[in-house]
Amino acid sequence: EPEVTQTPSHQVTQMGQEVILRCVPISNHLYFYWYRQILGQKVEFLVSFYNNEISEKSEIFDDQFSVERPDGSNFTLKIRSTKLEDSAMYFCASRPQRGSNQPQHFGDGTRLSIL
Amino acid sequence: GESVGLHLPTLSVQEGDNSIINCAYSNSASDYFIWYKQESGKGPQFIIDIRSNMDKRQGQRVTVLLNKTVKHLSLQIAATQPGDSAVYFCAESLSYKYIFGTGTRLKVLA
Q1: Which of A14, A16, A28, A44 is the most buried (most CB within 10 A)?
Q2: How many structural domains compose chain B?
Q3: Predicted confidence (pLDDT) per residue in A38-79, tens digit
Q4: Which residue among A31, A87, A95 places its CB closest to the CB of B2?
């Protein structure tokens, strides 16, 4: 069964450094998402992306965050200047199409640790 | 550093018994609901979904019930197995983003 893949599985970065988290969504999917989960807490929506632009973003997704689909397969989340509170699991998700209710499929996440 | 996490409610069930996991959702405009299972170190895994025009949907060993009057969802797992041990989240879909609940940890006792 096709799946969403995320790399790296664990990223350790110094505070203030830039980090890029990578995702390869399922190939025929059109909608892409990033979520984060701080240790022991609920999964929180960050941003949704369709047709090469952001369709919705949360309050968490401030100017330090950006997303990009640089080619036909990758979907990236960049944090420009990381803070301690950015430490979390980051999940990428994708979904086939708009208009019908179909579940988002999630990757296994990248654990981001900010030192 | 990382924040102190919320205390997850835990449901302990004997192997072979049925499990019922409950969830309250927040927005009456949500039109689609999903249950996910999350095992340690993994991402949320889709279990079953239900649209707001339905009140019950069955899958293999799982049933989801939706009560829109009180904004309540439940997940029933029949004949619970050790492999069902995980954290279970409900999610409501609002303008195509998901809002997740806090989660319930299911422990299956041998």
Answers
A1: A44
A2: 1
A3: 988 889 999 999 989 999 999 999 999 999 998 878 999 999
A4: A87
